[in-house]
Amino acid sequence: MGRISNTIRNMKVALFGQFLGIIINIISRKVFVLFLPIEYLGLNGLFSNILSMLSLAELGIGSAIIYSLYKPIADSNIDEIKSLMRLYKNVYCAVGIFILAAGASLAPFLDLFIKELPDIPNIRLIYLIFVINTAISYFFTYKRSLIIANQQQYIVIAYHYAFMVLLNIEQILILYITQNFILYLLLQAVNTLLENFSLSKKAERTFPYIKEKDILPLNKNVKAEIKKNVCAMFFHRIGGAMVFATDNILISKLVGLSTVAIYSNYMLIRTALSSITGQIFQSVSASFGNLNAQGTAQQKLDVFYVMNFAGAWIFGFCSICFFNLVNPFITVWLGEKYLFPKTTVFWIVLVFYISGMRQPCLTAREAMGLFWYDRYKPVFEIIINLFFSITLGIKFGVCGIMAGTVISTMATCFWIEPYIVYKYGFCTSMQTYFIKYIIYTTITLMCAVIIYILCNFITYKGVYELAAKLIICGIVTNIIFILCYMNTWEFKYIFTIIRKIT
């Protein structure tokens, strides 16, 4: 019951904060396109992707340390917790310094990442501010991992969204008054510093022992396990960055910076959806890690089935809404000149759905520390993705780049991740997983066709079109899902949890 209560608390705060964040981000983006040229929007997306690549220096040690904290927290082993936190601090400070140095060294070579370098003043200064903003977080962020591992992620979420809302309000005012992009970015860097510093102080107040100086050397076996997991997570980080963080770079180089600007609006919405759904699974992650340290194999398998069912419902619903609502929404929000055709939207949504359906397996893998067994999977994923994304991207543009991501995911992650979780985590066959996956996807496709047909009957334009389609997607989709799933034990379990939340 303690794990369920912590999960519910984390989930409630996460969902509220994420919805608040989406609203303020939508307003902020509208002000951004009103006061700054479209090239600035493309630049924003491109530099964010470049810095995501540099963040590979983190090596995945965050996930490895959080996993290592589950058992000492469950056992109240304060000495081991302090030793782990000191290791985490040293590594993250080194990572922050590396990102500053490596990021700054790339500044003279920005034209390599852009098809045609736009006539934007101080473009390299803008890039350096992005570098500083990314590096700052690493000098304080290690303490938040202890809060997360202690099943108190709601604290981290509350701090993050409080500072994010404040930042967006300040940035809106700066753009309205000055239209200065550099001031806009400087505010972001200052906000990152203040958020991480404040959260660091909160961690010290919650866990005062982390300020103590009498820290024992870390146990050799624990250190060896961390090194092993970090080595494995490094490959996973490379895979994630090369597959998802290179989209803007490829679009910029193969298509153009203005297309990056249009794509970034779709990514803002996709990222918002991914953040909402991601917060749900992150809220469960620490509790699942605690269950892994204390529970039975059957308990872990049952909870995983519930997570998998919830993922199918959530990502099926979000994908249907995304496909039918995103263009009407962008039309109302920014105007028709920022739209992609339906074919491109389909591929963006398909990437979202396939990536989302991986979340239950990824959550279980990280909570159980199964990083090592599929460490070489990202190598093949990267090779397949770059080959098909570049080849298809040259011919089909954004659609081709998205298709490359789909092909690489289905060829590797789709079957390898559940195989690892079932073989080494649950020690049972994964046949049931794939049967459920086929059932869930078939129901989602059937529902998607019905919703698409119904939405095509809408003849309104503007806000009325968006509202009518929103009602159809929101009500009809969930009615179909309820009728299809109401007799499953997973649905009954989830219904009990929802009743507790409400």
Number of strands: 0
Class by SSE composition = mainly alpha
The major sheet is characterized as: none
Q: H/E element string? A: HHHHHHHHHHHHHHHHHHHH
The backbone outline, from C-alpha atoms, is globular
The portion of residues assigned to helices is over 70%
Radius of gyration: 23 Å
Mean pLDDT: 83
Spatial separation of the terminal alpha carbons: 16 Å
Instruction: State which percent range the strand residues make up.
Output: under 5%
Stretches with pLDDT under 50, minimum 5 residues? none
Care to describe what's here?
With 502 residues, this protein is an all-alpha fold. 81% of the residues lie in helices and 0% in strands. Helix 1 (2-35) runs parallel beside helix 7 (153-178), helix 3 (61-74) packs across helix 9 and helix 13 runs parallel beside helix 16 (398-411). The radius of gyration is 23 Å and the shape is globular. The two termini are 16 Å apart. The mean pLDDT is 83.
